[in-house]
Specification:
The chain is an alpha/beta fold. The chain is built from seven helices and eleven strands. It folds into two domains: 160 residues, NAD(P)-binding Rossmann-like Domain (Rossmann fold); 104 residues, 2-Layer Sandwich (Dihydrodipicolinate Reductase, domain 2). The two termini are 31 Å apart. It catalyses: (S)-2,3,4,5-tetrahydrodipicolinate + NAD(+) + H2O = (2S,4S)-4-hydroxy-2,3,4,5-tetrahydrodipicolinate + NADH + H(+); (S)-2,3,4,5-tetrahydrodipicolinate + NADP(+) + H2O = (2S,4S)-4-hydroxy-2,3,4,5-tetrahydrodipicolinate + NADPH + H(+).
Length: 288
Amino acid sequence: MTEPQTTTQATAPRSLRLGLVGYGRMGRMVHTVAQERGHRVTAVIDPHAPGATAPALTPELAGQVDAVIDFSAPATARDNILFYGRSGIPAVVGTTGWYDQLSAIQAELAGQPAAIVWSGNFSIGVRLFTRLAAQAAALFAPFADYDALLHEFHHAGKADSPSGTALQLAQAVQSEWPRQPQLETGRLDRQRRPQELHLSSTRGGHIPGTHTLIFDSPADTVELTHRARTREGFAAGAVQAAEWLAGGRRGLFTLDELLDDVFAAQMGTGASPQPKHKPSPDTAARKR
């Protein structure tokens, strides 16, 4: 990506015109949160949802919205992202399943007026928890008595395991935990190998998502846990990302850049984040 940037002094409009691309469970939650934050939903793009304003993206969308929030489908993600980038429509992309195409998308959008934030999980709490997990791993790493392990719980209807968030968490831990560089996500009918970090999963009930990182030694156990109470946290993070983009930023960003900007503002540095070209924890590849 090229790097046309604005400063952190650029602020989002008080009220945004938002387009929602994909109007399933997450899209409807985003709609509710956006209205609660004083924004208007002026376009709903979905080929199946009742009440959608259009079944597919069209050039007219650029004049109808200040930003879009995309929770659609992996099959259309690449084309959608290229459309937003070439049209200059600020876009928050929560759709997953396209990260293997990230490098190609970056190359195609080079020199285009793209303004895109993407993440596999827009919960601000999850992103902060992931950073905390990496810091914890760095603290425990010098002490050989400690072993690390991960477990995640989700509702019975979740169609995959482990969760993408759990894979992001594992990648963050392993970045600071060199003695368990291999990730094992399957059922073990054998002894776990010393170099393996075991990530296990449970499915049942109605749990929105719980992720636990454990450091265990013969003397004690330390547990760090994030529990999502509802999906509202994911929707709120996506709307906040749209507000952040609508301040005039250009580039291809992850949610981590938004957090970096918040921290910079708190510290009074006023430094504008640069788009990252290398994969972040959001690009963790799924290991089945």
